[in-house]
Amino acid sequence: MAFRFRLAPETTNIDFFRFQWLTFGGSMMLTVVAIVAWAVMGLNFGIDFRGGTTIRTEAAEPVDVGAYRDALSGLDLGDVAITEVFDPSFDADQYVAQVRIAPQDGQESVTPETILLVEELLKSVAPSITFPAVESVGPKVSGELIWKAIAAMVAASFAILIYIWMRFEWQYALGSVIALVHDIFITIGVFAIFQLKFDLTIVAALLTILGYSINDTVVVFDRLRENLLKYKTMPLRDVMNLSVNETLSRTLMTSVTTLVALAAMLIFGGDVIRGFAFAIFFGVVLGTYSSVFVAKNLVLFIGLDRGDKTKKPDKSEFANVDA
Amino acid sequence: MQPMPLWKRALILIICVWGIVAASPNLFYGPVERHNDAVASIEAAGGTATPELEAARAEWPDFLPSALVNLGLDLRGGAHLLAEVRVEDVYKSRIDAMWPEVRDLLRDLRDQIGAVRRAPSPDGVLRVTITNAEGMAAALEAVRGLGGSVVSLTGVGQSTLDVAAEGNDIVIQLSDAEKQATDSRTLQQSLEIIRRRVDEVGTREPTIQRQGEDRILIQVPGIGSASDLKALIGTTAKLTFNAVVSRTTDAGANAGPRNQILPSIDEPGVYYIVEETPVVSGEELVDAQPSFDQNGRPAVSFRFDTTGARKFGDYTAANIGAPFAIILDSEVISAPVIQSYIPGGSGIITGSFSVEDSTQLAVLLRAGALPAEMDFLEERTIGPELGADSIAAGQVAALVAGVAVAIYMVASYGLFGLFANIALAVNIALIFAALSTVGGTLTLPGIAGIVLTIGMAVDANVLVFERIREELRANKNPARAIELGYERAVSAIIDANITTFITAVVLFAVGAGPVRGFAITLGIGIISSVFTALYVTRLIVELWYRWRKPATVVV
Question: CB-based contact (8 Å) between B44 and chain A?
Fold first, then answer.
């Protein structure tokens, strides 16, 4: 037998329900924590969602946030946030910062005169400064974008719900969509706790997580459906364990290849795309976890109708669920 | 193992070869792009080519495919604007323009309705007070006669005007159906004018689209900044020729009814009182070109259409010796004295222009004035250097991801891993081929989508290979195991990918710009990865099996 690199032994027989109180319970708790963090701390919305202007600066001199702030203080622009941006791909004398200006009263996007003034003032601090990107979004559009983003998430989840319902059964559909909600909420929670910038590309990342996570879950469910026909008398819980064990090698394999690719994006992809890459990376880890530990548990909770032969389910099958 | 029918094998091969050929120009982006630009400009010039264009054209052979992936603004650099058109402006000017007509009409009914006077009213509403309310019915009927019927698909047969009586007042405004029809025309006109102005500066593939009811999205790659773009499209350039009543240095002078007082552009402190109603206006221009006057100073020459030319001719014939004003955006450019009758409707505008000014003015005059003002809701400028950095970073990331996944696949599945890697390479070629062919746009999240596809594309192969392993463990013979592996993995592959595809479709539907680019690459990536996993690797495995006829297979 040729050498093969393996993440999981050839055949496994792990009881994925054994520490259910920890894995599934922990997941539910994390979801709650994430929602609380989201509600209490709020998200650090980018200009896509709250309006305003960001100016990316690049200079050969090191960024002195204080000096930048002082230079702009006379302008009366309201809330001005200046953050330095670091990235391994920058040259030795490439110093990048992000200046964020709150939306101005009574204006949609910031006027060119204001931006010109800001650029002049920053030039007095750092003579070599250039402005590779200037973006401005008016409050009118940003308000709409939030709703659009929420509508997109709901529409995608709903479409998946319908599709899984049609291909499998409603229990699977509900189980997988709740697992998706779990993935999304925890990812949003992480963005809230670490106050990472949350903009339109992060919503795209969340939708991608949705797609990836459901992909993983469907593979497990597909095997479950097949095994339910094969082992008609085996308790549901055991069939589920068998299915997850049988697909474990594939689940890990796919997660690792995806994560390897995303890690490359995270490290080498540059700072502009980092938030996006991070959200997907985190979501893929979570999605893999949830398809093994969350989705099927939900289906077990709800219970499956296995037809005549199992109309009298073993008492043990449901007794264990409550444990 | 049941071999694939020949036609199927041929088809798979053709698709793969097409993918590689169609994707290949993207490897030589610079030369191919210069070649395409040169071909386009040679065609625009009617087939004549300068030596530089010929040289650029020769950089890429004509017989090879030359379709390229468009680079999005975030990769190429450029400006993005989202503008909201103030459609109500048009209601106001339409309604205001009706007042003289309404007044003349009602004056004829003076016996029944008494005196007629315009009362103050909000924008877009004309309120006319009559002294004798008994004549109201006749007045309403007369005014209603002014309205035509709406020209639109939904509003056919409805009147363009809403005319109502309120006490002694007649209230006139555009009907809702007409407002809708007007909005639609205003947007169409604005789009057309913006397109012409942007085209005049000759940038590459600008995107100018209507969005929703009253918005226009403008994306222009390669332009310096959003402010430049705004300056280009936002300038109104409303040109009129008006009769001059008098010249004054007092800005507060009483202009008199139906006259207005306007400043001069080059003589500070000088004002002209001109008649409010223009003799001829910029809408009647058919052409404007930068040129020089007899003293060699930059000027703009122009030509009117037939009605404009007749009006201009009649006016000059009747007013020899009198000055008239050339007015641009409420400023008097010049007020020459009419020397003679000017037939033919062409003329020249002189002033203190630089060559750039006269070129710019000619462009603006040709494009015409925007029908309504615009508010800019969103503006973004991305510098070309940042875009180039993003491309470089994306390339490194994709390369590292590809190599890492390839090594990992071979380590995990040996020879079969190698097969999967060939399929992965074909897959990436197919993504670029499809993007180039449909003229898709590659954005930075789009590159991330490709990197993600590199990771996820092997999934379908992994599903198959794991299945083959299972079948082998169940002591199936190799050929049978491979066949069953593919057969049984299909349902999981299809279900898993359709759900992911659903999210790609949703992303495409709601996303804009970069996000939409990501949705396109993700969607194409899903289709091509299913194709490569189910057909390409299968074909390779089959060919290998028939060639080597191994007694045992190790996956």
Answer: no
Which of B82, B401, B511 is facing A265, going by the closest CB pair? Answer: B401
Cβ–Cβ of B511/A5 closer than 8 Å? no
Residue B280 in tokens = 């001829």
The residues with which B418 forms a beta bridge, in sequence order, are: none
Q: Tell me the per-residue pLDDT of B233-264, one tens digit each, with 9 for 90 and over.
A: 766 567 788 888 888 887 777 777 778 888 88
pTM comes to 0.79
Q: Using an 8 Å CB-CB cutoff, list chain B residues near A1.
A: 554
| Closest Cα in chain B to A5 | B412
| Chain B residue whose CA is closest to A112 | B227
- 3-state helix/strand/coil string of B182-243: HHHHHHHHHHHHHHHHHHHCCCCCCEEEEECCCEEEEEEECCCCHHHHHHHHHCCCCEEEEE
Q: In what order do the strands lie in the sheet with A52-59?
A: A80-85, A95-101, A52-59, A130-137, B374-382, B78-85, B215-221, B207-211
Beta pairing partners, A313: none
Q: Where are the domains of chain A?
A: 20-45+141-322, 52-137
How far apart, in whole angstroms, are the C-alpha atoms of residue A89 and residue B197?
Answer: 39
In this structure, the strands spanning B346-350 and B271-275 are: unpaired
Whether the pLDDT of residue B419 is over 90: the answer is yes
- A52-137 belongs to CATH 3.30.70.2040: yes
In CATH, what is the architecture of A20-45+141-322? Up-down Bundle (1.20)
| Cα–Cα dist A226/A218, whole Å | 12
Enter the ipTM: 0.84
